[in-house]
Amino acid sequence: MEQEQNNSSKKAIVVVSFGTSYQDTLKLNIETIENKIRDNFPEYVVRRAFTSRTVIKRLAADGVRVDNEIQALKRLQDEGYQEVYLQPLHVVAGAEYEKIKVLVAHYAHAQEKAFEKIRLGRPLLYCMGQEDHPDDYEIAINALRTQLPADDGASAVVLMGHGGMHPANAAYSVLQLKLKDAGLKNVFVYTVEGFPPLNRIIDNLKQQQVKKVTLMPFLLVAGDHATNDMAGDEEDSAKSQLLAAGFSVDVYFHGLGENAAIQDIYVSHLRATIAHPPHGHRHACGKSHGHRHGQS
């Protein structure tokens, strides 16, 4: 429940994601993180926003109302909130993250200040360990280890990311390099709508003489993409293509939002955003101490 605050101390956190119309996975992956943020930041009111208009429309048809990022900030402005932090649950800083970044910049640089303070946190994969910044990839890989099956030498894990045309799609290739550097040579990354494609991964699996593959969504939620593009029965799904290529296939049908260590990363990103004031391009990452292993 939201607590009443006087105007001078009204502080809010908007937890913003692409969203999902799958009610069960919404509770397991998004609501769980929202609740963890509430537990860690009890002095803040926590609100939900989705960036996908399509998902919002589908939910509205079922009688469920969710604000988009514009509506969420307008509502906070109308209610007199002065300090606002937005924590995205996006995996990479792609097109959906850009929507929020542009909006926050508009509020931050407007002549008439709607909020005394407004800041944007970073998605799961952003900083790469340069200078004194944390390595978000290393931290995410350590969190991922908690859900990986044992490596028996003849098996592999194939992670499905979303991907797209945005330059941030390159994050998946960085992740692949860093998985290899971390010693996880049996974990491969492909994307539904970008690079690397699945056929490239299948070639790698054959070269390594892999027999068994575990498919795993590298997505916040196990929703439409996981159900259809990854684990569906259509011949173009990842599962069907891998079976056709001669592999035995298991499916790990859980979004990243169900992983407690991943949840802690989002909490730590938010904590860094609140603790470190913006300064050029350095504000997105904050300092590395306390976050090297995804501690919240």
Could you provide a short overview of the structure?
This is Sirohydrochlorin cobaltochelatase. 38% of the residues lie in helices and 16% in strands.
Compute the average pLDDT.
Answer: 90
How far do the termini sit from each other?
Answer: 23 Å
CATH class designation of the largest domain: Alpha Beta
Strand-residue proportion? 15-25%
Characterize the biggest β-sheet: 5 strands, parallel
CATH architecture of the largest domain, please? 3-Layer(aba) Sandwich
Can you tell me the CATH topology of the largest domain?
Answer: Rossmann fold
Secondary-structure class: alpha/beta
**With helices defined by DSSP (H or I, 4 residues minimum), what is the helix count?**
10
> What fraction, in percent, of the residue positions are helical?
25-40%
Count of β-strands? 9
Low-pLDDT windows of residues: 288-296
Element order: H for helix, E for strand: EHEHEHEHEHEHEHEHHEH
Strand order of the largest sheet: 3-2-1-4-5
Radius of gyration over all CA atoms, rounded: 20 Å
How many structural domains? 2
Task: Categorize the overall geometry.
Answer: globular
Protein name: Sirohydrochlorin cobaltochelatase
EC number: 4.99.1.3
Keywords: Cobalt, Lyase, Metal-binding
GO molecular function: metal ion binding; sirohydrochlorin cobaltochelatase activity
